[in-house]
Amino acid sequence: MTSWELLAFALAGYLVGSIPVGLIVGRTARGIDIRQFGSGKTGFTNVLRTCGVRWGIVALIGDLAKGVVPVLVARIVSDEPYVHATAGLAAAIGHDWPLFAGFQGGRGVATSFGAALAMNPIAAGALVPFGIGLVAVTRIVSVMSVGMAPVLALEFVVLSATGRQPWAYAIYATVAAAIVIVLHRENIKRLLAGTEPRIGRGGGERQAAHSVDT
Hints:
Layout: H1 3-17, H2 21-30, H3 44-51, H4 53-77, H5 81-96, H6 109-119, H7 121-125, H8 128-138, H9 141-161, H10 167-183, H11 185-193
Helix pairs in contact: 1-4, 1-5, 2-3, 2-4, 3-4, 4-5, 4-6, 5-6, 5-10, 6-10, 8-9, 9-10
């Protein structure tokens, strides 16, 4: 591994992550700037609330791909796990603070998960039913967001500690989970207060909007 490899994949991952899928979907679906509605974020949940299920799924697939693609390319080009992890983390950071959208993005859940899926598809994929179950029971997407991130990090740490995957992946998952939780701090406060909006609410203009997004 060289510093040039890390730098190249950090830059490439960030630029891919910076593609504002949600913003593009909002303009395509309704001719709006998605950041002026709902939570003001560009992630899947805000697109779902503002533009509907079909467009929400499009945004979800796009945001997942932003995490998957940089890591897959890194794995093809390099055998160094820290290069893979760097590409994935940079993509998540690009989604959260996108160069191409005035550094106003989402909260990185889908893109972070996409990167983890590319690192270890079986381990990450196994948590999908868990996430779906959280949403099905609570009807609150942010519960899934702040619930899955630390569980995925713990799973990756255990796998790395038992020699089943590189430690670089566990470090990635831990840092990515920390970022997701920090960016959801307002959601966590509302969850504790019982005021977090459920699915189907909070998609109006920013003046009357609640903040919840992935």
